[in-house]
Amino acid sequence: MYRLSRLRYIFPLGLFISLFLDGSLSSVWAKFFFSYPYSMMSELVLLWLVLSYYFEEGIEIPLIPFAVFAGIVFDVYFTGILGLDIFLYPLIVELTKILSRYFDQSFLTVIMIFFIDIVVFVTLTYWAYSLVGITHMNVGDYLVYTLAPTLALNLVYFVILYWPIQMIYTWALKQRKS
């Protein structure tokens, strides 16, 4: 059904826009996002992937291949090498699928699952970077100076973008129901 719906255009376009905005917002607002000792990571790609899972309504968007592709593009464009995002984006999509089995879909449960997704994503990134020696931050500093601001930023994104994205999906799926 994905091939026959408007989502075949809307979903990749939204994914591209979220990739573009993640980098652009981080660049434009770098003094706000990365003012010592605080560091916030904009995760609009994760927001788009998670909300797409909830709003697809049986269309079954191939989220894992798109998540891998988004990870490749993000890693190569922003870091110059294949890194963590190629693995973490699909992992977070799977985590969302697993967690959604246990909860009914409502705004509060979706924001709770997104909260968990961000915590897992940022914590795995921190852990991997600590393991290879890229970061030397202790766990307490990580929780206060990186995880908390990142959660705050991305939960604000979620609250602001939840209904507009839902309206886009409703519009895209309306054709199918007619």
From TrEMBL:
Keyword flag Iron-sulfur: no
Q: Where in the cell is it found?
A: Cell membrane
Identify the GO cellular component terms for this protein: plasma membrane
TM region(s), chain numbering: 67-92, 107-130, 142-165
Transmembrane in keyword set: yes
Family the UniProt entry places it in:
Belongs to the MreD family.
This chain's protein is named Rod shape-determining protein MreD
Q: Which organism is it from?
A: Limosilactobacillus fastidiosus
- Read off the lineage from the record: Bacteria, Bacillati, Bacillota, Bacilli, Lactobacillales
